[in-house]
Amino acid sequence: MKAYLARHLQVFMRTIGDFTRSPAATLLTVVMIGVTMVLPAGLYVGLVNLQRLSLGWQPHGSLSVYLAKGMADTGVVAAIRRIPGVAAVRYISPAQGLREFETASGLGAGAAFGRRNPLPGVAVVTPADSTPGSVARLAGRLKALPGVAHVQSNLVWIERLDAALALGRRMVVILALMLGLALVLIIGNTTRAAVAGRTAEIAVVRLVGGTNAFIRRPFLYAGALTGGLGALCALLLLEVALAALNGPIAALDRAYGARYQLSGLDFDQALGLLGLGALLGWLGARIAIGRALRAGRV
Question: Which of 47, 161, 184, 207 is 20 to 30 A from 221, comparing alpha carbons?
């Protein structure tokens, strides 16, 4: 076992030595792979941040219940609280609604509607189950209550947002598959060039009894290491892009009085990206050297 591990370590160190002897070509390949991998990773990070941001815009599945004029608001709100499936109710009185409107509009007290307040009381209902079907059923029960003039649901908005996010996730998968294939081809071409440049060396190894597994080993290490370094380059490019975007987003937050900061990949996701890059690099090299060995070119 020690001899087996020693041979692998020897091949790995030799692969690193080969990289250092041609730094320009290695750097070009690594950057090319990094740019290829950062596209789906960046799109995925953008979708995650969009989903986080959308959750702060509006409570998921909330219902705005507008109360009829002339009815006792306290009785209607109490009836709403007794309905099964209601998790919480926040009541906004007409006077409070008017103050919030005047503050948000910047018109000042009394400048919006004069002395008359046309706004109704509103009960903001948070459902216990925020799935679209449950929210729709709860909205139907609320509409049937006496004293309820109108029920406004953000259900359509939720469904549209979920559909858009699902489409984005599907696009990430398709783009990742296509660019993963491109990465395999890039490393495959690099491996074919390396095989062509070491034909004489491989012939000598065969003469002294070297097996196909022994011949493949350095090329597989080179492919895996190239893919891993490309994934590391993609992580660095992604962090640079996020750092560049955080400044304008902070300025936008100050303008709207909000606080939001872009988040990148966590440790497990970054580790997964590195492993995926190494795996695709190994696969590209494995295909290329396997074809060369089967065709008898080495």
Answer: 207
